[in-house]
Amino acid sequence: VIARDGRVAEAHWFTAPYPSMVHDFGVTREHVVFAISPLVADLELMRQGGPHFGWDGRREVHVGIFPRATGPRDIRWFRTPTCFSSHVMNAFTEGRKVHFDTPAGQMVVFPFFPMLDGSRFDQERATPYLERWSFDLDAPGDGFTRTRLTDVPVEFPRVDDRYGFTKVRHGWMVARDTSA
User: Fold this and answer.
1) Per-residue buried b or exposed e for 79-94, using 16+ beta carbons within 10 Å of the residue's own CB
2) Which terminus of the chain is more exposed, N or C, with fewer CB under 10 A?
3) Cα dihedral angle (135, 113, 173, 85), rounded to 10 degrees?
4) Is the pTM of this model over 0.85?
């Protein structure tokens, strides 16, 4: 929690399912949302002189959601098959459902991270499309719904900050023309 004067007023820690690069996260008026994607920190890779992060496509994505009022002691984890999400457009809560809008691809979108299984970077599988990830906090289990919102590849999404935390009709992002 950041105070009005810009100082950290409160800090909370939680343990993720595995060490991952968490580049961005979502916040609603009621919840905080963290996507743990399999761009992992690999100590052995670093010891061998490799980069800090590598793509481990064998791992599932874990999404942690916790109430802002109580912090991560009440975190709930959801899972989906491997994919990559690094930037967040927006997040909002509707009743007992939390929505998280993010560009997502089947694998890491940056070719400068190595594939830990030795495979080659695949641009087609890495291409991100804007998705809405919807979490029903009253439903049993750890699954959630992923709905594609764009037909063109996108990245670096934004909403007008005055409307963050709410369901919005408009957002901005970099898009790639795939018709040429």
Assistant:
1) ebebbbbbbbbbbbbe
2) C
3) 0
4) yes
Tally helices (H) and strands (E) across the chain.
Answer: 2, 13
**Cβ proximity of 75 and 12 under 8 Å:** no
Give 3-state DSSP helix, strand, coil % of the chain, rounded to 5.
10, 35, 55
Q: Which amino acid is at 97?
A: K
Phi, psi of 145 (to 5 degrees): -100, 135
pLDDT at position 86 = 84
Q: Which two tokens stand for residue 75?
A: 């975190």
The pLDDT tens digits of the residues spanning 97-154 come to: 999 999 998 888 888 888 988 899 888 889 999 999 999 999 999 999 999 999 999 9
Q: Which two tokens stand for residue 151?
A: 């037909």
For tokens 């289990």, the residue is 141
Distant-in-sequence, close-in-space partners of 114: CB < 8 Å, separation ≥ 6? 45, 50, 51, 54, 55
